[in-house]
Specification:
- There is one protein chain.
- A two-stranded antiparallel ribbon has the order 1-2.
- The chain is built from 6 helices and 2 strands.
- The protein has 2 domains: about 1-90, no CATH class; about 90-120, no CATH class.
- It is mainly alpha-helical.
């Protein structure tokens, strides 16, 4: 794995929301929460990481949508202090990567937390 550069919580939240917004599995759910919070798609699709109000809105959206910062759902027992980095990795690095302890990923990886096992299920 190569660390390309440092990142930030705001960038992680932005990228996480973008992936969920475009996902077949979560798209409708995130759009529902966005509607409840009176947010339009530009909050995800036209991101300005230097805009404090947008960053606050995205963090609230991720909290309402997936429990981020609220110690629930996907982010239950998630650490408060994290160093975020943008990294690249090679396919052989997959043997060292592990999913979080979350029911969906546990099931897909047959309890191993390994993407190499999960890919056979997916």
């Amino acid at each position: 794995m190569n660390i390309l550069r440092t990142s930030s919580e705001d960038e992680m939240i932005s990228e996480f929301l973008k992936a969920e917004y475009h996902s077949e599995r979560f798209s409708e759910q995130i759009k529902k929460v966005m509607k409840e919070l009176l947010l339009n798609e530009s909050i995800i699709l036209s991101v300005d990481l230097n805009n404090t109000n947008e960053n606050i809105a995205r963090k609230k959206l991720l909290g309402e949508f997936r429990g981020y910062g609220l110690n629930r759902e996907l982010f239950e027992n998630f650490p408060n202090e994290i160093q975020w980095s943008l990294c690249s990795f090679m396919s052989y690095d997959l043997k060292n990567i592990r999913y979080i302890d979350y029911s969906y990923w546990n099931e897909l990886s047959k309890g191993t937390h390994s993407p190499l096992i999960a890919v056979t299920m997916i």
